[in-house]
Amino acid sequence: MGRHVLEVAGSRVTIVDGEVVEITEPRTVSCPLRSRVYGIERETRESIRESMEFYIGEWGMFTSNRVIRTEELPISFGITEIFNSCMRRGLIDAVVMVCEGAGTVIANAPDVVQGIGAHMTGLIETSPEPGIIAKLEENGVHVLNPDGAGMNQHLGATRAIEMGYRRIGVTVSGHDSRDAKRIRVELGEACAIAAVHNTGVSERDAERIASSCDIATSCASRWVRDRVGPRALMQLGMHIPVFILTPLGKELAMARLADFEGPLIVGTGKIPALKKEQPHPLR
After folding, report:
1. Which of 63, 201, 246, 248 could cysteine-pair with 18, CB 3.0–4.6 Å?
2. In 3D, which of 242, 268, 239, 270 has the Cα closest to residue 257?
């Protein structure tokens, strides 16, 4: 029986055998990103259910119908979209990320990275889904632990290096900031580390993110805005900023900007630069 737990808008969602079985009250009342992508103006248990059923119905998430490849870019400056552009431009060879039903995976094709990560959000725990694992492997994805679907980004990055990859993107949950620090210390510049799922991280986590990561999404985090933002070299977006923390991170961000097809405004100023409409409440 496949069981998956994730956080969406501060709500803890449990999915069993492709069905949403539990949704806690969302702690995020409103999110500009979810408003733009899904048309959700106020977060409720019902809005969470609708978005999860969209994931399941349209993307086959949590089931053997899982979409693995896509060219769709739903978020202008999402981490998946940044890594996608970097892979197309030869700046990154592979990405260590997580996929529901498989845990930590290593993907080496940009449309596969996009397919896995386009709508992935806040995965907390997962269990093996043989149909998803089979599809991933058919598409050249290395599943770190197919029997247990464990999530271990440090081990994934280490395995990617053992497989011969030399320029590796790694996503790490901000709640696992010790993992980001360990990757940085032990594996160095071979890895471009992006902190994701940062809503609710502690001040200590935010400090580790600032000192260990190349890129960090602000999500609905007060501490990432307060502690990580002022150390950024560059910022992408103003509603839910993505903070670029290192020269390597800037190189990767510039690859995404070069691929972005819409109009861009470039300026200088103090970071963080925030629009009035932020996720509410920040925590």
Report:
1. 63
2. 242
How many residues are given for the chain? 283
Cβ neighbours of 174 (radius 10 Å): 26
| Cα–Cα distance, 72 to 50 (Å, whole number) | 20
Residue 107 near residue 113 (C-beta atoms within 8 A): yes
Residue labelled with tokens 């599943």: 143
Alpha-carbon distance of 270 to 272, in angstroms, equals: 6
Residue 233 · residue 245 · CB < 8 Å: yes
- Is 168 within 8 Å of 190 (Cβ atoms)? yes
pLDDT digits (tens, 9 = 90+) for 148-173: 999 999 999 999 999 999 999 999 99
> What does the radius of gyration of the chain's CA atoms come to, in whole angstroms?
17
Please give the torsion angle defined by the CA atoms of residues 143, 95, 199 and 121, in that order, rounded to the nearest 10 degrees.
-50
pLDDT digits (tens, 9 = 90+) for 46-69: 999 999 999 999 999 999 999 999
Please, are residues 2 and 18 in contact by the beta-carbon 8 Å criterion? yes
The full 3-state SS of 103-135, as one line of letters, equals EEEEECCHHHHHHHHCCCCCEEECCCCHHHHHH
- How crowded is residue 264: how many other Cβ atoms within 10 Å of its Cβ? 9
Residue 8's H or E segment, with its range, is: strand 3-8
Identify which of 98, 84, 110, 93 has the alpha carbon closest to the alpha carbon of residue 161.
Answer: 93
The pTM of the full predicted model, rounded to 2 decimals, is 0.96
